[in-house]
Amino acid sequence: MSSTNLTGFLLALISSAFIGSSFIIKKKGLQLARVNGPSASVGGYGYLLQPLWWVGMVTMIVGEIANFVAYMYAPAVLVTPLGALSIIVSAVLAHFLLKEKLQKMGMLGCLICILGSTIIVLHAPQEMSLSSVQQIWKLAIQPAFLMYTTSAIAITLFLVLYCAPRYGQSNILVYIGICSIVGSLTVMSVKAIGIAIKLTLEGANQIFYFQTWVFTMVAITCIIIQLNYLNMALDNFNTAVVSPIYYALFTAFTILASAIMFKDYSGQSIGSIVSELCGFITILSGTFLLHGTREPDPPVNPDLYSPLSPRVSWYFQGNNESWKQKEEDVPPFNLIAIIRQDHFK
Questions:
Q1: Could you give the CA distance from residue 253 to residue 156 in angstroms, rounded to a whole number?
Q2: How far is the first Cα of the chain from the last one, in angstroms, to the nearest whole number?
C-alpha cells in the first residue's frame, strides 16, 4: 500500500468510529424528541431542540471531516467501503445503549465485514494524479458522468415527490434510496473540493476557479438532503436495519459514480478488480448477516395507555350486497352482541 493510501485508510478508520457513534447518539436524541412532539418521520423538527441530537451531529461532523480528508489521499473505492466499520461500531453501541441485542451471528457478520475491508485495502487502486480543479471539472462534464448525474437527479425527484409521501414510512428503501443516490454525488463533490484544498495548500491556489465553488454548492445541497432523509429513516426504522442497507446502497452508488468520473479501475489488472469486488461482496454479506440477526424495534402503539372502549359490531348481508360493518360505542362491561342476518325477506 502506498503512503497516500495508508493515510487515507487511517483517516477512514477514525471517520468510521465517529460516524458509527453518531448514529446511536442521534437515535437517542430522536427518541427523546418523539416524546415531546411530532417525530421526524412525519415532518417534525423537535429534535433540533434536543442537546443529545446535536452531540450526535457534532460527532458525525468530526467523522465526516476525517472522511473528507481521507478522500484527499485515497480513491473513493478504498475510502467508501471502509464505512462498513461504522456499522460495526453502530451495532456494538446499539447493543449496549439502545438494547438492540447483538446475536452471535451478528458478531460473525462484524468479522466478515473486517475481512472484506482488508481485502479491499490490499487491492485498492492508486489515486489519479490531478493538478487542478479544472481537470476535475473536465471529468465531471464528460458524457458518461453527465448521464449518471442526470439519471441520479431524475430518480431522486421521483422518490422525493412521488414515493416518499406514499411509501416512505412503510418502505425503508425510499428514504435510504434518496440518501444513497444523493450521497454518491456528495462524495464526488467532496472529493473534488478536497483535492482543490490540497492543491491550494501545496501552493497552487484553486479558490478563484468558479468550478471550486460549483462543487462546494453541490456538496452543501446534497449533504442537507442526505441529513434530512437520513433522520427520517432513523426515526422510522430500526438502526440495525438503516445502517447496513444505507451502507450497501451508498457504497454501491459511490463506487459506480467514482468509477465513471475518476476511472478508478483504469490500468488495474483483472485480478485486482475481481479481488476488490469480492471484498465488497464479502462486506455486503457481513452487513446483511449482521442486520438479519438483529431484533427489530417493537411497534409503537399510540393508544397503549388509552382506556379500552367496548364496541358492538353489527354485520348485515343483503341480496347481492357486500359485507358492511358499523361500530358503536356501548357502556363498559356490557355484553358485546354480534347479530348476523343472512338475508332480508
A1: 13
A2: 88
pLDDT in tens, 203-229: 889 988 999 999 999 999 999 999 899
- CB 98 within 8 Å of CB 42: no
Instruction: Summarize pLDDT for 14-25 with one digit per residue, the tens.
Output: 998 998 899 889
Q: What is the 3-state secondary structure (H, E, C) of the chain?
A: CCHHHHHHHHHHHHHHHHHHHHHHHHHHHHHHHHHHCCCHHHCCCHHHHCHHHHHHHHHHHHHHHHHHHHHHHCCHHHHHHHHHHHHHHHHHHHHHHCCCCCCHHHHHHHHHHHHHHHHHHHCCCCCCCCCCHHHHHHHHCCHHHHHHHHHHHHHHHHHHHHHHHHHCCCCHHHHHHHHHHHHHHHHHHHHHHHHHHHHHHCCCCCCCCHHHHHHHHHHHHHHHHHHHHHHHHHHHCCHHHHHHHHHHHHHHHHHHHHHHHCCCCCCCCHHHHHHHHHHHHHHHHHHHHHHHCCCCCCCCCCCCCCCCCCEEEEEECCCCCCCEEEEEECCCCCCCCEEEECCCC
Give the Cα separation of 69 and 56 in Å (integer): 20
pLDDT means over runs of 10, the chain (345 residues): 79 90 86 74 72 90 89 86 82 80 81 86 79 91 95 96 92 93 94 91 89 95 92 82 81 89 83 88 84 58 40 44 44 42 45
In angstroms, the CA 120 to CA 283 distance is: 10
What distance in Å separates the CA atoms of residue 168 and residue 157, rounded to the nearest whole number?
A: 14
* pLDDT score of 300: 46
Please provide the size of the chain in residues: 345
273 and 255 in contact (C-beta within 8 Å)?
A: no
